């Protein structure tokens, strides 16, 4: 697997010499997008960047709760430190953080490596890729200790009086929210906006768009460091798709555009075409429309994600597309060439950014290659109409995993190793849920059956 990436290149030794950083936090993203980190002295980091780095392969053999499934001996595998991802550590000390990932052949299991392959494919096809995630998440008036003391039941929300686009919450919590923005700025992550959303303690942060792998790296780092930032303030940031049945779902919408490498022009924009949509954009949408139902697990990898994709939760329930229509899965935004893009509205806040972007890009490029023409755009409220034949989403994670497992297109795009490994992880997650007896079941059935 090739190791080139887009973005600014750094020499790790030169960065450390210039900044005087004393330590480097070297992180590998696991199968759920959590950053697993080792903090090493700067001198050792320089040596490992030059001679090789190793990390335990258990990251792809345990579930979200760190319970192993299957069998294995859990050995250290060769990995590469990506010097071009080095950034300042945003908290105390003069330190740095840098992303690493497993080398081939084992590295084929990594969603980040798969995304790099799709970015390189886009480049071979004559495109650069520009994208941005926007996340909704809940802030809870809870610490790790208080959540466990309460059994995670009915957690207390921060900013109980919060409303959508609330002036009050932004004014009252100015210092806290400015502090979050400052932490991200030190990481090289900028916000397109920050505002409140529907429900107590709910925020939305659309990230600024970036080229290539940086967009997904920024999104994954944003989630990991947002959790850490709020924990340092005695609070908990929750990126679950659905925290409670009485609250709306939390999205992780993904905006994607292509630019022509030949002249930098917008590949999705054609002023002379209907709705200013280029033929490239139509084929990109056609690919996503066709493959979205069978590849859904790649962007919706938790049991909880499927609690959001139900009518009335501001989330799509089947493959659909339209112009500026917020009830569809793919919202076309072509008001100008500079901002022409497709908003993929399926991913939740709990999505793995590298896997979600790899899925979106892989399916879209497949559509361009195969010239897949989409059905007519939807202008109606898709929540009020049933799914057309073949467009319905899987109803739960088990169904999504089975459909991904059987997808010949997914295996052709991403390879058997990645799909088989990813499916096994999703099935292990689903099996853990099916063994669990919930409070809802006890309350509903204990006295009545």
Report on this model:
- The structure is a single chain.
- The chain is of the alpha+beta class.
- It folds into 2 domains: 12-105, Ubiquitin-like (UB roll) (Roll), CATH 3.10.20.70; 120-445, Creatine Kinase, Chain A, domain 2.
- It is 34% helix and 17% strand.
- It contains 14 helices and 15 strands.
- The chain has helices at residues 12-19, 42-51, 111-124, 144-149, 167-172, 174-186, 213-231, 279-291, 305-308, 353-370, 397-405, 408-414, 416-435, 439-445, and strands at residues 23-29, 35-41, 53-56, 76-81, 87-88, 95-102, 127-140, 195-196, 202-206, 210-211, 236-238, 254-260, 321-323, 330-333, 341-344.
- The strands form 2 sheets. Strands 7, 8, 9, 10, 11, 12, 13, 14 and 15 form a 9-stranded mixed beta sheet that branches.
- The longest helix has 20 residues, at 416-435.
- The radius of gyration is 22 Å and the shape is globular.
